[in-house]
Automatic annotation (TrEMBL):
Superkingdom to which the source organism belongs: Eukaryota
Gene3D superfamilies assigned: Mannose-Binding Protein A, subunit A
Span of domain Link: 12-107, 112-204
Name of the molecule in the record: Hyaluronan and proteoglycan link protein 1
Record's keyword terms, sorted: Disulfide bond, Repeat, Secreted
PANTHER family: AGGRECAN/VERSICAN PROTEOGLYCAN, HYALURONAN AND PROTEOGLYCAN LINK PROTEIN 1 ISOFORM 1 PRECURSOR
Organism encoding this protein: Ataeniobius toweri
InterPro entries tied to this protein: C-type_lectin-like/link_sf (IPR016186), CTDL_fold (IPR016187), Hyaluronan_bind_Proteoglycan (IPR050691), Link_dom (IPR000538)
Compartments reported by the entry: Secreted
Cystine bridges: C58-C79, C157-C178
Pfam families according to UniProt: Xlink
């Protein structure tokens, strides 16, 4: 059955690897990981549309059909070679239990409000979680940030905690000291959760 054309414009595909590092997910882990970020594992058609829209990522990730692929818009040596053409590189079907890669997730339109929580001080991870709770919200997930960035042009040059323990920030207007060359969700790190060096992004679901 054909996928409705407007499906691709109601969501965003994003690459994901867990805090323990790249290429650590079998297929079932990949499905669960996307679900934990309020997303689903992406289909090939969704990844293809994301590539057409400029997604460039050199780490291979699972897709919903059990294949492992990655999108390249700027060919370079570590990603298929400088003489290769742009495209979606395909590793084919891999063993769902023993093979380990990253994953491409698909987050649809937000059903709530994603926002930076203004706080007087920088927070540890536990303090960030509690600060969102105190604001009658939850600490935001990676899928929330990508959806807000891509679908709502959310832009903030402040690194903040997310629910998976990562620190990221979304830039839709590239500029010096934020993301000078491209619009992107910038990954900072999976820092020690006791470090008080970051703010927090929260998510409040619609009632």
């Amino acid at each position: 059955m054909a996928i409705p054309e407007d499906l691709f414009f109601r969501g965003v595909v994003f690459p994901y690897s867990p805090h323990r590092g790249r290429y650590n997910l079998n297929f079932d882990d990949a499905v669960q990981t996307c679900a934990s970020q309020d997303a689903v594992i992406a289909s090939f058609d969704q990844l293809l549309e994301a590539w057409k829209d400029g997604l460039d990522w050199c780490n291979a990730g699972w897709l919903s059909d059990g294949t492992v692929q990655y999108p390249i818009t700027k060919p370079r040596q570590p990603c298929g070679g400088t003489n290769s053409n742009p495209g979606v590189r395909n590793y084919g079907r891999r063993n769902k239990k023993t093979s380990r890669f990253d994953v491409f997730c698909y987050a649809s339109k937000l059903k709530g409000h994603f926002y930076w929580l203004v706080q007087p001080d920088r927070l540890s991870y536990d303090e960030a979680v509690q600060a969102c709770r105190d604001d009658n919200a939850e600490i935001a997930k990676v899928g929330h940030m990508y959806a807000a960035w891509k679908l709502e042009a959310y832009d903030r040059c402040d690194a903040g905690w997310l629910a998976d323990g990562s620190v990221r920030y979304p830039i839709s207007r590239p500029r010096k000291n934020c993301s000078p060359t491209e619009a992107a969700v910038r990954f900072v790190a999976f820092p020690d959760k006791k470090v008080k060096s970051y703010g927090v992004y929260c998510f409040k679901a619609y009632q």
